Each structure stands twice: as structure tokens, then as C-alpha cells.
Amino acid sequence: MAKDKEFVQAITPQSEDFSRWYIDVITKADLMDYAPVRGCIVFKPDGFELWEACQRELDRRFKETGHRNAYFPLFIPESFFQKEKEHVEGFNPELPWVTEVGDEKLEERLAVRPTSETIIGHMYSQWVQSYRDLPLLINQWANVVRWEKRTLPFLRTSEFLWQEGHTAHATEQEAREETARMLDVYTDFVENELAIPVLRGQKTPSEQFPGAVATYSIEAMMKDGKAVQAGTSHYLGDNFARGFEIKFLDKDNERKYAHTTSWGMSTRILGALIMVHGDDRGLQLPPRIAPTQVIVIPIGPAKAREQVLAAAEQVITSLRAAGVRVRMDARDDVSPGWKFNEYEMRGIPLRLEIGPRDLEAGQAIVVRRDTGEKTPVALTDLTTIVPQWLTLVQTGMLANAREFLRSHSQSVSSIEDLHTVVRAEKGFALAGWCGDAACEAKVKEVTGATSRNIPFDPPEQITTCVTCQKPALHTVWFGRSY
Amino acid sequence: MAKDKEFVQAITPQSEDFSRWYIDVITKADLMDYAPVRGCIVFKPDGFELWEACQRELDRRFKETGHRNAYFPLFIPESFFQKEKEHVEGFNPELPWVTEVGDEKLEERLAVRPTSETIIGHMYSQWVQSYRDLPLLINQWANVVRWEKRTLPFLRTSEFLWQEGHTAHATEQEAREETARMLDVYTDFVENELAIPVLRGQKTPSEQFPGAVATYSIEAMMKDGKAVQAGTSHYLGDNFARGFEIKFLDKDNERKYAHTTSWGMSTRILGALIMVHGDDRGLQLPPRIAPTQVIVIPIGPAKAREQVLAAAEQVITSLRAAGVRVRMDARDDVSPGWKFNEYEMRGIPLRLEIGPRDLEAGQAIVVRRDTGEKTPVALTDLTTIVPQWLTLVQTGMLANAREFLRSHSQSVSSIEDLHTVVRAEKGFALAGWCGDAACEAKVKEVTGATSRNIPFDPPEQITTCVTCQKPALHTVWFGRSY
Questions:
Q1: Domain of B362: which CATH number?
Q2: Closest to A479 measured CA to CA, from A190, A189, A207
Q3: Contacts with B42 from chain A: Cβ below 8 Å
Q4: Residue B2: inside a domain, yes or no?
Q5: For A89, phi and psi rounded to 5 degrees?
Q6: What is the pLDDT of residue B273?
């Protein structure tokens, strides 16, 4: 049991040092390792499996909304970046450049893509000729690189994995509808699969995507009260269409620029998943996304082992048939107590303990990772009860995270109060904003918080600017962010 | 009808110019487009969908054989390449180098990965400490870059997509078994899903992977008699383990080097799929891999349209329930004849025509892409007949390709005969080889053919070297290759 204790103690408590807790958990849970390249990580199998689960759920939703996958080159010629002025200024400092191949210098430098609007814009200009070619609804799963100064595993890495949707439309209205639709898709995925509640809204101009007309985001709150931008959807107007000549002959026989959108979600969502649900015992995975939903631990003396394992196998077979992702840890050189701690740390939603006395009573013990509740369940009821409990855990996790977000958010009317809310009380502040970028910058300077977004549906409308106290144009969420 | 004719004529016949035929088909079938980066292509949705189907089938097989996916960085520090001498010599001329980020020069150049043995070797050296950590069975889906001089869409592109398996084992025997197992997995996938028969064997030393002890390959024959190396599996001995210090404490308490393997299959397999099965009418997709297996074409006058579409929808619903991937082309501004040609060109295995007279007779017309056979089938029998026919088409395509391979392969005893077989008769030659690299080089110099592999199971053993006429150590397949 001394061993079990040591196991738990290796994770720094959240209240002591949240950053330390985060690194402890992702390391101990084997999700990642640091790579020998600045700011890059290795996604270890347990971490990559989480991304695969996200990919599967997102990809299904993209296809259901009419999108198809394609793949565009990793390298982007330097000249392409010059075609959209704000875009190049936004990304230039972070771009890695390929300047030579083998022993030969290249005539034109090639950027390693930080995002693909430019090269996709170039291709779309060749694919779009007539209104019949529109809408063009394409998604790409890819690696991208942005040489970040401060990096943090999953949340901000030099190379990361993501999907980027790129669509072209005949009209502004259709493009704006697409932008909204994909923000809905992200919201649905993040709330219903990952059990992470989000704040939906529009980014202020200073925080929007370089080259966009409007950027919309979903923002999530971590357990330390900081924000993670979980997904963004951009209406690009005809900015990229003009830069790359994406023009089409419309029904009215006029040549027009297309209206384009882009939208992306990346492996940073894994960082959010961990920081929203994790606790001092480790990870906590929502059942719908958990690669393993139930871990079966056989218990009891060696002489009962064969009988217990046989019963456990039966349970596993019937649970699998009921659509439950279940596996067993039958190692005999590790104590059950050690295993209990290990799978709590790995965040498996339900644990099933089966020992000889349970078998005599025709039952197994089911333990919830979220509440710690232990309940004996008749073996014959497992295929009904386990799926029900998985749903309960999922719903409960979302409700808890929603309550955390609500109780850590409040409206403020002065910069001082905003400072208190984001620093001392560790949460988000809802504040009025006159629309002047200088007032927004002042908030950041004084409090370290940035505007998260202008909510579509704010809990209240605030009428004076938090900085200058003049009439507010918008009500804005502010928070410190990752 | 003039329009239909034009449609077909746009594809150059294979007999006239096979290379032209290939480009015509992949362009017309919308599989790819040329990218504005040297030697790179864009995988358009119809092309990428084929790769997604391959990924799904391969990934399933990898997981069934105990492998898990992970993700390692795109960039590899220059110093890593120096640690395995043959490896660096093999890849150096093709490596793109990142030398600067933003406006800053990097202290150490970073290669864009051409393959990941080095960076994965570095990580494994940290993950493997004890025999308990072995075997380590990891696969990565990734993009890689090799700056090729001559490029050809899918078959040889500067950037390509692939999977690379990397495993570490405690003993040579286990590593060799893994190497063989993955060659079996590739064989199973390529023959049973893609209907491409392959020749299995070991590469000669001059053709093996830089840094490997032994490379095994599966080789396929295109319709122009040229070879495509469809997949490779390498036993790397302890070469990379020594270079990167992958050492473990064994059961006997001794520290030993691990034995590693790697194995890969790339998007070049799509080129093989097209060149093995395609004909003068276009693509021909094996049913098991075809994203759409059946295309439904409604036929008849406008006044019958509603009735026909309703019946077609019913057919589609019942076929989907039977597990068939089916869709309808209900466009009314394109003639049925045009559609027939289009979907033959796109290689859809079965076409289902439904018109008002068919409905009266309670039937639909089923047309096979491979044989052109047209058969009326009762609507009530479709869910039984269609899956049966899909299996027939799949089996028939493999049998045809096998017969083509057999009839274009023959044994030879002189370089002159070898030359005739690979050039004039457009096939593979089976020849004896003394084991001297000079004799192998001579074959290439005179005939343009390279050794494909030393088959595990040659149709016959040849006892004299095709070049020097001394006793042969091996019987070898030779062929011109892509």
C-alpha cells in the first residue's frame, strides 16, 4: 500500500501548482513526450488515441455536412504569402523556411505551412470557373508549423496536428451561413463528445485571423480559470478570392469573386480536455471519447484466479456486444490497489472489480471515476447498467464543467474588478467595450487578460466600456488565456 | 451521342501511349491536380477518398496485429542523420533543409523527414529500458518528403503520404518474425482489397533500404509490364539501436541492443491500383476498396421521373441496409449515356439502370464495369444479387491481374533474352544471379531493368547467372520499374 500512496503523490495537486499538475498528468498518463526539436512533442499511443477519437467524431460531422477531405502540399512558395497583406504580416515571424535541398540552394524559399489558405486559394482559382462549381466544401487533416516562443504540450507546440476546412461560395450569405454552421459543428462536438461547455461568439478585430473579415470562436474555461480557444471559424469575405483570383461566372453572366471561409480545430483540444476534467488523481475522460470506457480488474487469491478470469471474460464479451469499449488488466505482478490508482490516473470512466466473493453473490463492483461511488451490480444487469452509467457520467461531467464555468464568470464594470476576477478569483469577466482597440489593449496591459469573444448570447448586456466608461458597443468576455 | 464519343476519346488508348493514358485517367477522374511546388500534387477529394479507404483497411490490420499509432515530429535535427552512416548517404541528396525561422538563422539545420527511423530511434532509446518494455509496436501515419528528380503523380512525388511502422524487439528472431508478419499484412491487403497480385521476396543488397540488414518487398506488375514496389518491410538488425543507443536490461540481467524493424506503404499504391486495373475507358476500382460500389442512373422521360426516382430511392435504401456503398446520379441536365461513360471512366464496379419500363417489369438493369455484361435483375433480388456480383467482380479482377502477371513473366538465361522480355515483351524476367553486384549492375546498364526481388517461392530455380554464366546463388525477378 505504501507503493499505492507513492503513485498518487507523484502528481502535484492542482491547488499547489496547476502547471506542474498538468505536466505531471500528461507525463504519467503516457500521453506525450518531449521531442528533440524545439517546441515539438511526440504524441505517444495513449495521447494519439485520444486525437484519433476526436478525428473520427469530427470527420463524421464534416462529411454529414457535405464536406470531403483532400490533401494539399506541405510547402508554400514565398510569393504566395505576399498576396494577402494581413495574412503575411500575421504569420511571417513564425514561419520555418526551406532554403536548400541536398546541397542545392532553392531559387524561391518554401515556407512550411502554418495554415493553407494561400495554397488552397491558388488551387481553387483553377477549380472554380462557374457558379456550378460552387459551393466547394473541402477539409484537410494535416500537420502545420508555427514557431511559437512559449510552448506547452498540446496547447501550443511548434508543430501541431489539426483539420482545416476551406470552402468557397457564390454569395456572402452562403459563406456566412457556412461559417456559422461549422461553429455549430464544433460546439456540438466539444460539448457533447468532450463534455466541455463553451462560450460562443465573435472575436474582436485585434484577435481575429490574419486576413479574415470576421472570426468566430468557442472558448472553454480550464480548471485554473484560464481560457482555451477550442475552435475557430472564419468568414474571409473576398479577401483571399481577390488575392488569388478565385472568380466565377455567375448565373447572371457576370464574373464575380467567390466568398471563402476557413475553420480549424487542433490537437490543442486535447490540452483543454485534460485541463477541464482532470483532478488531483489524474485524467478524467468523458465516456463518449474515452478509448477505454470500462476497465475490468480481477481480484482475489491465486487459487481463484482461473475462475475469476473466466467470469471476467464472459462479462467483457457481453459488454462488447452491448457496444461498450472495455478491456481487462489481468497482470498478476501488480496489486489490485495499484491498478485502481493507475486507471483512475488514466481517467477510465468506470472500473469493474470482480472477485470470488462477488461471483458467489453473482455480482461485480462498479466504481465511477467521477464520484468514486462503488455499487454492487448483478452480473446479469451489467449490460443494462453499464451503458446507463456511462451516460450518467458523461452528462454529469458536462454539468459539472458548466457549473464551474458559471460560478467562475462574472460581470464587471471597472478594470480593477476585471483584474480581480481574472487574477484573484481565477475566472472570466464579462465587460462592456466601446469598440476602441486602445481600450481593449489597456485591459490586456493592466490585467494580462485578453478579450475572448463577443458572445452571441451574453448573460447580460453591459452598457459602459470597462476602460473609458463611455457607452459600450459590445459586451465582451475577458480572460487570461493559454 | 456525339458528346459521349468525345468524352471517351479524351482518354489516350493504353496501346498508343501508356504514360499519356495514365495522366489522362487520373486527371479526368479528378483524382489529383498538379501543385505549384516542384514534384508535388494535390490529392483531390476523389483521389484522397481512395487513400482513406486504404488507410482504413491497413489501420485495422495494424491494430489487429497489436500495433498502436503515434506521431513524431516532422523535423529531424541534422546531427541525427549522422548516427547511421548508410542511412545518411542514402537520403542526403533528397533532403529539404529548414535553415531559418522568420528572420532568424537556426543554429542546427532541420531536415524535413524522408522517413523517421532516426527520430523514432532517439525516442525509443528513452522508452526502452527493460525487456518488459518490449516489443514496442508503433505505427505512424504521416507526410514525408524526398526531393525526387523525376516525378510522376502518386508513383513518385516530392511529398507523399504514407504509414511507417517502427518496432523494437528483444531478439533477432522476434524482429525477423515481425518483418515477415508485416509483409504478410501488406500482401493480404494488396491482394484481397486491391485485387493486385504480388511477387514476394527479398531485395538484393544494392536495392535495400539504407541502414537495413534485409529488405523484403511485394512487387506488382502494371499493364505496361513495369514494376511498382508496393510495400516494403525491413529488418534493421541492431544498426539503428547502436546508432541511437536503444538498449535494454534483459531477463538474464545483461544490457543488450534491441533489434528493430520498419515497414511502409505509401500513396504510390494508388498509382499501382490505377495502372493494374485501368483500361481504355478509364479507371476500374475493385469493389472492396471502391468508395462507391454501385451507381444508380434513373432513366426515361420527364413525366416518369418522379416515379423512377421514388423507386430508385427504395432500391438505394435496401442496398445500403445490405451493406452496399451506393449512390445515385439524378442530374437532369446530363444524358444517361453521358453518365454511363462518366461512371465507367470513374471505375464504379456496378451500374444500375432504372427506367419506367423496368419498373413495369419489376426489375433493374445491372451492368458490370469489368465485363460490360448487362443483366435484368428483379428488384426483389437486388439485395442478394448485387453483393454476390460485387464479390464476383472482385475475384475476377484479381484473377485477371494474376493471369496478366503470369503471362508477362518468363525465365531467361541470357542478358539478351532478359532485354527482350522486359523491353519488347513488356514483362518481368526470372533469372539466375551469382550474387555479384557487378553482374546485377550490368543487367541494369544493358536492359534498364533492375532486380525486383529474390522470390521466397520462385516458379523455378535457375542455376546459372544471367550475366556471367557462373553458378547462380539466387533466382531473381528483374523488371523495369516506376
A1: 3.40.50.800
A2: A207
A3: 70-73, 123
A4: no
A5: -65, -35
A6: 98
Q: Are residues B23 and B118 in the same domain?
A: yes
**What are the pLDDT digits (tens) for A253-279?**
999 999 999 999 999 999 999 999 999
Whole-number pLDDT of residue A89? 85
Question: Which residues, including other chains, have CB under 8 Å from residue A392's CB and lie 6 or more apart?
Answer: none
Range of the domain at B462: 409-479
CA B291, distance to chain mean position in Å, is 16
User: Are residue B273 and residue B248 in the same domain, yes or no?
Assistant: yes
Check if the beta carbon of residue B186 is closer than 8 Å to that of residue B231: yes
pLDDT tens sequence across A286-329: 999 999 999 999 998 999 999 999 999 999 999 999 999 999 99
Q: Are residues A150 and A271 in the same domain?
A: yes
Q: What is the largest CA-CA distance in chain B?
A: 84
Domain of residue B466, CATH code = 3.30.110.30
Amino acid at A431: A
What number is the average pLDDT over the span A380-400? 98
Q: Residue B44 has what pLDDT?
A: 98
Q: Which of B78, B98, B127 to mutate to test the interface with A (most CBs of A within 10 A)?
A: B98
Residue B96 burial (CB count, 10 A): 24
Q: What is the DSSP string of B152-182?
A: BTTTB-SEEEEEEEEEEESSHHHHHHHHHHH
Interfacial B residues in 155-214 facing A (CB < 8 Å): 159, 161
Consecutive sets of 10 residues in chain B, 482 residues long: mean pLDDT of each?
A: 53 96 97 96 98 98 98 96 83 94 95 96 98 98 95 97 98 98 98 98 96 97 98 97 97 98 98 98 98 96 94 97 97 94 97 96 97 97 98 98 98 97 96 98 98 96 97 98 95
Return the H-helix or E-strand segment holding B51.
helix B45-64
The pLDDT tens digits of the residues spanning A163-214 come to 999 999 999 999 999 999 999 999 999 999 999 999 999 999 999 999 999 9
- Cα(B331)–Cα(B315) distance, rounded to whole angstroms? 18
Q: Is the pTM of this model over 0.80?
A: yes
Pick the closest to residue A325 from A305, A352, A365 (CA basis). A352
Would you state the pLDDT for residue A84?
79
Q: What is the C-alpha separation between A140 and A152, in angstroms, rounded?
A: 24
Same domain, yes or no: B160 and B208 = yes
Given a contact cutoff of 8 angstroms between Cβ atoms, the answer to whether A111 and A95 are in contact is yes
Minimum-distance CB partner of B74 among A51, A119, A159: A159
Burial class (CB in 10 A: 0-12, 13-18, 19+), A457: exposed
Beta strand segments in B83-155, E = 96-101, 104-112, 136-145
Does residue A323 sit within a domain? yes
Q: Are residues A153 and A260 in the same domain?
A: yes
Q: Is A97's CB within 8 Å of B93's CB?
A: no
Same structural domain for residues B147 and B253? yes
Q: Which residue of B has its CA nearest to A66?
A: B45
Q: Which residues numbered 84-103 in A keep a CB inside 8 Å of some CB on B?
A: 92-103
CA A252/CA A259 separation, integer angstroms? 17
Q: State the complex-level ipTM.
A: 0.96
| In a shared domain, residues A366 and A426 | no
Domain assignment present for A351: yes
CB contact under 8 A, B43 and A123: no
Q: Which three cell numbers stand for residue B234?
A: 525491413
* CB pair distance less than 8 Å for B96 and A92: no
Q: Is residue B363 assigned to a domain?
A: yes
In whole angstroms, how far apart are CA B159 and each of A38, A110, B23, B94, B101? Answer: 23, 13, 18, 11, 21
- How many Å apart are CA B201 and CA B216, to the nearest integer? 6
**Is B298 found in the same domain as B271?**
no
State the total domains in chain A: 3
Interface of A with B in 45-64 (CB under 8 A): 45, 47-49, 51-52
